[in-house]
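Could you help me review a protein record that somebody else here produced? This is what I was given.
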Amino acid sequence: MTTDVLEQANYPYYMGIKYATKDYEFVSHNEAVHWQWSADDATITELKHHGGTIARLEDEAQLSKQVTAYIQKHQTNKYIVQHFQQPLVGLKIMIPDHVVIKQPLNLTIDLRDTQPIALTIVLILGEGSQLTLQQAININGQVAHASCVIIGHQADNSQLKLMTALSNQTPINLSLFGELDVARDCVADWSLVPGTYGKLLGDVTVNLNGQGSVAKLNAVKIGIGQDYSGFQGRVNHLATHTTSRINMRGVLFGQSKVNFTSVGQIYHGAYGSDSQQEGRLMTVGKSAQGTVNPLLIIDENDVNAGHAASVGQYDPEELYYLLSRGITEQQARKILVYDFIAPVLHELNDDLQKKVIAAVEEGAGEDLHDSL
């Protein structure tokens, strides 16, 4: 990536998301990054038996065509340009045609360093293949800045259930970019749990490029302390009879701030498409702030589209009902919080559910204990 490309690139703009551009700038370095990955042996054995591969990107002789195409497509985004100016770190996962991996692939990536880290994950599913990938990205070092890019490609009739969870031990400024390109008659089901605390800028997209494909995009964010999160989820309908569902939920404790933006775009010619989105925030902390920004862009007549959005505290009448049944105030408030995030929580596996529950318990503090 040349210096000219970086100079011509710009920081991305998102409707309803205000952020300080300097918080996510990346300082170039040429030092080796300390990281490791692990996965369950049984699934790795099954994957390799069918000709699948998991390889470190730095071991590749040259950039894959998927990474090259992604860089060229996003060369106006300064954060992505900065990301790929760093030493290439990450994994490439490839599933051949007509291979069904029956057991979930539980993938853990541990990043341990004191310098900025740029992690790239490339996922390729062949025609008729199926995979459930549960990826936990743990930032364990003292790094103050990290960038993560997830690139996925699905061939015809493939099915992907992808769960992405991120966590860290010390406050961090994290940028997260992801894009799935989906061919015809596919299912792409992506759930994200950005459990990091500090500052997060997230932008994930699913492109429905082929007829009859379905995309589900779920996200849950628990805001703790003085966290800031700006997160956009987008599905582009580029082919006929495609379907999408975006569901984002957030619970805000303390003085946290969360901005959700959801975009469903139906392009001209993508008739018969169905785009629905829902974004909801519960502000538990008295000083918490949040916005939900639904956006539908429709350039076709024969479609179905809709959205729902809300920001507010729990319903006092529901709280009173629970109290009248002998439930303590603390328990009642927790019940309302968990009921609120249940639609997204149910999409996650047990491990990710536990991470979300732990975040609620950590962030709750006095916000769930105070008397009315």
About this structure: Residues 329-345 form the longest helix (17 residues).
